[in-house]
Design goal:
Radius of gyration: 22 Å
Number of strands: 8
Shape: globular
Largest sheet: 3 strands, mixed
Strand content: 5-15%
Length: 439
């Protein structure tokens, strides 16, 4: 399977999806015989429910996962067991602070007003092409930095400044996928010799760590000269992390070394890449379906016009058998393949590849909910994404603001394909032209 995989690396997701459709939604990928790299890739909702919920304790991420995603250190994405539970409770408690949602919305709206709209206005006047994916990546990076670190790097500005930490995430998500496809000994040698993919990853890690450490040092320095209540007001999330960890952990003791940095790095990656990628694919589909764009704009004008114009009002150790009949052992790596899952006729019907927003709307006009084991964008079971509500808030504000003010037209001939990456970014960006809507 190795030659076919590398031959089709530029269209990896489509190749995997075709294979999964032919094999009923689940198949075993045979890796190098000497490297213990066999993987079971599944899109079966019953399998996914089994792994994420029903038999959750049998499927830890483990040390191999932690080595693949070493940038996140002791961040929640790398943990299992009791320490994972403590981290999750800690972060959940922070996100549930009484004023968190209103603060987050204020941050997003401020970036819309001071960054997004001025940039779009300037570019639309010139008629130039624009890479919306880059715009969204800069937008989400600025907002998550402000929320977590009380610092706006202003990467989304008219001069499009180069900020190493913001750009580093592309190399990180691409490089981590590469680690999945070659024997660990190969990439570990690359890392030791600082060459190839591992050199890019190392440079990217350093850029992220330098940025976060610098921000944390600033917070520590400024907090020394402030009264305790003002420290909490100004640097709520960062200063609450250790306190909240001790509260949730009881007798567990002090947080692991680099706890704050690893947590911030994890949340930075989650806050930048996932939402910006979702926005990019959303606007690609909207641009290819202008009738849908018109309908959304009509809804905004009917229900949200005041709110869009006025941000203040827009408020296992033993082998077992999966439900699909496949045997898995302790050393089997399970890949829950969400991209392919969304394109399985077996799950969604023969129209699964069509853009049909109405498939999510009930006959009464409400949102049609699907079980998390069927629609796994935010994972499921005990590992359900803590930032789900934050994501929807940001998505709705940005999408409605842009559609309300602009018509989006794709640049003809520009290829829009997914990159071979851990996050479904667009390989060549999303090139569009904007036309201001006369309101």
């Amino acid at each position: 399977m190795i030659p076919e995989t590398f031959t089709n690396l530029h269209r990896l997701h489509n190749t995997l999806t075709r294979t999964l459709n032919r094999s009923g939604g689940t198949f075993k990928w045979k890796g190098h015989w000497f490297a213990n790299m066999d993987m079971l890739i599944t899109t079966d909702p019953l399998d996914i429910h089994h792994v994420l919920s029903k038999n959750f304790s049998n499927y830890p991420k483990g040390q191999k996962y932690r080595k693949l995603f070493d940038i996140f250190g002791d961040g929640i994405i790398n943990l299992d067991g009791h320490l994972w539970e403590i981290h999750r409770k800690t972060i959940m408690s922070l996100f549930r602070q009484p004023n968190f949602q209103s603060v987050f919305e204020a941050v997003v709206w401020n970036k819309v007003e001071s960054g997004l709209l001025p940039v779009l206005e300037s570019i639309s006047k010139t008629g130039m092409e624009i890479d919306l994916q880059e715009i969204f990546q800069r937008f989400t990076f600025d907002t998550i930095c402000k929320v977590l670190l009380d610092y706006d790097p202003q990467s989304l500005s008219l001069n499009f400044p180069y900020i190493p930490c913001e750009k580093a995430w592309v190399d990180i998500t691409d490089g981590m996928l590469y680690r999945h496809l070659i024997p660990p000994i190969f990439w570990k040698v690359q890392r030791l010799l600082r060459m190839g993919n591992e050199k890019k990853l190392s440079d990217a890690y350093n850029a992220v760590y330098h940025f976060v450490d610098k921000c944390l040092a600033r917070i520590q320095h400024e907090s020394i000269n402030m009264e305790s209540e003002h420290v909490h007001e100004s640097f709520g999330l960062v200063t609450s992390l250790v306190t909240e960890f001790k509260s949730q952990s009881g007798n567990f003791g002090y947080p692991p070394k680099n706890f704050v940095r690893d947590t911030i790095v994890t949340l930075l990656g989650a806050g930048r890449d996932t939402t910006s990628t979702t926005l990019s694919w959303f606007f690609y589909l909207v641009a290819k379906n202008p009738i849908v764009e018109d309908k959304i704009r009509e809804e905004i004008q009917t229900f949200l016009e005041m709110k869009v114009d006025d941000q203040k009002n827009w408020n296992s150790k033993e082998p077992e058998i999966l439900p699909s009949g496949h045997h898995v052992s302790q050393n089997t790596r399970i890949i829950l393949y969400y991209y392919g899952m969304g394109r399985m006729e077996k799950i969604w019907g023969k129209d699964c590849t069509e853009f049909k927003p109405e498939r999510w709307i009930s006959e009464k006009g409400g949102i049609k909910h699907e079980p998390s084991s069927k629609f796994v964008a935010f994972s499921g079971g005990p590992r359900t994404c803590l930032g789900k509500d934050m994501s929807f808030t940001q998505l709705k504000i940005v999408a409605s603001t842009i559609i309300y003010h602009y018509h989006i037209e794709l640049v003809e001939g520009h290829p829009v394909i997914p990159s071979a990456s851990m996050v479904l970014m667009m390989k060549h960006g999303l090139k569009v032209r904007l036309t201001k809507i006369s309101i």
